[in-house]
Amino acid sequence: MTKTTNKTALNYALENLPNAPADVREKWEKMIEQIDKKNAAPRKLTEKQEANEVTKETIQNFLREHADTGFLCADLGKQIPALNGMSPQKISALLHQLKIAGLIETSTEKRRTYFKAVQ
């Protein structure tokens, strides 16, 4: 079962309640238009998101420079100056985002995950 959104509910009401008053149907249609307009608007990144993008670029550049070596999350935190002071959880989250985007790859050896640049 899929999640019912406001837009889905309004479309369902329009399709299945043909006897609804005209002004109510107009209101539903206007609400659907507003939802579409809101979803179509480009979203600006927050200050933290922009900082995270810069940090992810820094990680990528470091991994490209050391393409033949895999690094543990903790090792990256120690070797990249921009990551000093960041928690391992935050570094791990940024690495996970890079992996999902296909920009880095991982390998696991003895329950330890190593990160390296995609070749």
Mind sketching the topology for me?
Elements: H1 6-16, H2 22-40, H3 47-65, H4 73-79, H5 88-100, E1 104-109, E2 112-117
Antiparallel strand pairs: 1-2
Helix pairs in contact: 1-2, 4-5
Please, could you describe this protein's structure?
The protein is mainly alpha-helical and 119 residues long. It contains 5 helices and 2 strands. The protein has 2 domains: 6-40; 47-117, Arc Repressor Mutant, subunit A. It has helices at 6-16, 22-40, 47-65, 73-79, 88-100; strands at 104-109, 112-117. The protein has a two-stranded antiparallel ribbon with strand order 1-2. Helix 1 (6-16) packs antiparallel against helix 2 (22-40) and helix 4 (73-79) packs across helix 5. The model has no long low-confidence stretch (mean pLDDT 90).
- Rg calc: 23 Å
| Beta-strand share of residues | 5-15%
Largest sheet, order of strands side by side? 1-2
**Helix content range:** 55-70%
CATH topology of the largest domain, by name, is Arc Repressor Mutant, subunit A
The run of helices and strands is: HHHHHEE
Shape: elongated
What does the largest sheet look like? 2 strands, antiparallel
Q: Quote the average pLDDT.
A: 90
CATH superfamily annotation of the largest domain: Winged helix-like DNA-binding domain superfamily/Winged helix DNA-binding domain
Query: How many individual helices?
Result: 5
